[in-house]
Design goal:
Radius of gyration: 32 Å
Helix content: 25-40%
Number of strands: 4
Strand content: under 5%
Shape: flat
Distance between the termini: 98 Å
Order of helices and strands: HHHHHHHHHHHHHEHEEHHE
Number of helices: 16
Length: about 350
């Protein structure tokens, strides 16, 4: 084979190899750009379909056999979602038992001949086998049962749920909204305190300190500052910054001021503990020691008692306008003294 023919064949082979490589890379590169859930949504959907061989039988068939006089059914019927069980003008039911529990025809077949007084274990087994077994569902799948309807309604804050700290820690909708427990599925503000602090034990302890936000007294609630369904901010705060969140109540501290306390214009938590503290005014440390973290060389006196005055004199005795002032100081340009 001549040298020229060899080079031509080598060039053709290289071009073919390069083309094959490029075609092979196009699909993986495009796949990398596709949005994907952390757990494939299809895996959840398979778990939420129930038995594929079952058919839907309707509420009447679900209720007339066992649940007609059941407290669970009565509480649910009087709830917000229970109202949707009523026939609409179109003759369709918006929500029914099988919307959450899956199709029930095979479960009803398995129940034939069983009596509650005698066959309690068999009845429970029939429900677990033929309906969705919520005890075995992962937290994401449980929440997806609710989200498949509630992401399409006017509850706008739900769209942050999947990225919220609650979802990341496997808290589900059912932990706060017991569907069958009572007529009111919406948790009342006064009940939120016990609900939140039942998990956040460290915060509960802080609300027992001498200086605290009056959550346990029922004057404010956790949801005044935090959105339990998630936000785009840290700690699920309702506002974009800590200062905006605090400023909803402490408007006199917000400013803007002509003379501002520069390093704390955005973060109130530089000096204050958000939930509670052993020091007055929710301060993280006593006044003198708190201020001296940023102002260690501040001259207090030129006499022999200077060091003692730095230790025992409260900074706020002179600098009373800690958050900011519109009036210049007595001996300095600013000074936050008045």
């Amino acid at each position: 084979m001549s040298r020229d023919k060899y080079l031509v064949k080598l060039a053709l082979f290289s071009s073919l190899l390069a083309a094959t490589f490029m075609v092979g890379c196009v699909k993986p590169l495009s796949k990398l750009k596709e949005p994907r859930p952390i757990i494939p949504i299809q895996e959840y959907e398979k778990q939420l379909l129930g038995k594929l061989t079952s058919d839907y039988v309707g509420n009447e068939n679900c209720l007339k056999g066992c649940h007609t006089h059941d407290k669970i059914a009565l509480d649910f019927k009087s709830s917000t979602m229970g109202d949707l069980l009523e026939q609409t003008s179109s003759g369709m039911q918006i929500v029914d038992c099988e919307s959450c529990h899956g199709p029930a025809s095979e479960m009803m077949d398995a129940m034939v001949g069983l009596k509650e007084e005698v066959n309690k274990k068999e009845i429970i087994a029939a429900h677990k086998e033929n309906l969705l077994d919520y005890a075995e569902l992962p937290s994401g799948a449980k929440s997806l049962v609710c989200l498949k309807c509630h992401t399409a309604n006017a509850t706008f804050n739900i769209h942050n749920w999947n990225a919220s700290s609650h979802a990341a820690n496997e808290v589900t909708c059912y932990n706060c909204h017991p569907i069958h427990a009572s007529a009111d599925l919406i948790t009342e503000p006064r009940a939120v305190e016990q609900l939140c602090l039942g998990c956040h034990l460290d915060v509960s302890a802080q609300f027992s300190l001498p200086s605290r936000h009056p959550v346990k007294e029922g004057k404010i609630y956790c949801i005044d500052c935090h959105d339990p369904h998630g936000t785009s901010t840290a700690k699920d705060l309702r506002e974009m910054t800590t200062k905006e969140s605090c400023g909803r109540c402490h408007t006199e501290k917000v400013g803007p001021f002509l003379y501002e306390h520069g390093d704390i214009t955005e973060e109130c938590t530089t000096c204050h503990a958000a939930h509670g503290s052993a020091n007055n005014n929710l301060l993280k440390y006593p006044v003198t020691f708190l201020c001296k973290q940023c102002h260690p060389q501040h001259r207090m006196s030129s006499d022999d008692f200077g060091e003692k005055s730095q230790t025992f004199t409260r900074c706020t005795d002179c600098h009373s306008m800690v958050h900011g002032s519109d009036v210049p100081g007595v001996s300095s340009n600013g000074g936050l003294t008045r």
